[in-house]
Amino acid sequence: MPLRTSQRNIAAVWYLGTFIPFMVLVIQTFRGAYQETTATGMVDRASEAWGWFAPAVMPTLMLITSVVVAEATQPESSKKEVDRFTYRVTLSLSIAYLLLIWAALFYRAESGISPLGIMRKTGLFFAPIQGLVGSVIGVFFVARQPHASPGAAPPPQ
User: Fold this and answer.
1) What angle (nearest 5°) sits at the alpha carbon of residue 15, between those of residues 25 and 31?
2) Transmembrane region positions (predicted)?
3) Which listed residue, of 32, 69, 75, 147, carries a Cα 20 to 30 Å from 23's Cα?
4) What is the rounded CA–CA span in Å between residue 49 and residue 41?
């Protein structure tokens, strides 16, 4: 499978998979969804919500964007091949991780737990999953010599 195509597919999953949660957070921020009543009055905790979301997606989005742009400027990069299994693992883990983010944002409507309460709870298990996803994304997007697919032409000498 061509590396450039694989990277663009994964980039599309990440951009589309983070756009809706991003817009939900924007709307919720403006609607005051993260305001909490304390003994001293109302406190806006939108920064806490963004502090949960941004580190969950931005490092990966920045890596993906940087590599896709860099690869687009390299004419020989279109000839590189990537192992289908590696691509499928990276794509599957990315989709699973993004679905967890979606679930954390949309589950609260059914649970009765505050949006920040859900975010705090998911923070407990997001870190190891994010580490795993970050590892496969990093290897997939940064590896200098991607694995060749069976039957692919050997790299030029």
Assistant:
1) 10
2) 12-30, 50-73, 85-105, 125-143
3) 69
4) 19
User: At residue 6, what is the residue type?
Assistant: S
What is the reported pTM?
Answer: 0.79
Q: Are 82 and 149 in contact (CB under 8 A)?
A: yes
Q: How far apart are CA 10 and CA 140, in angstroms?
A: 10
- For each of the chain's 157 residues, which pLDDT tens digit applies? 888 888 889 999 999 999 999 999 999 899 888 887 777 877 888 888 899 899 999 999 999 998 888 877 777 655 778 888 989 999 999 999 999 889 888 776 566 777 788 888 887 788 888 888 988 898 878 765 444 445 555 555 4
Tokens at 82, concatenated: 């990537």
Measured in degrees and rounded to the nearest 5, phi and psi for residue 35 equal -85, 140
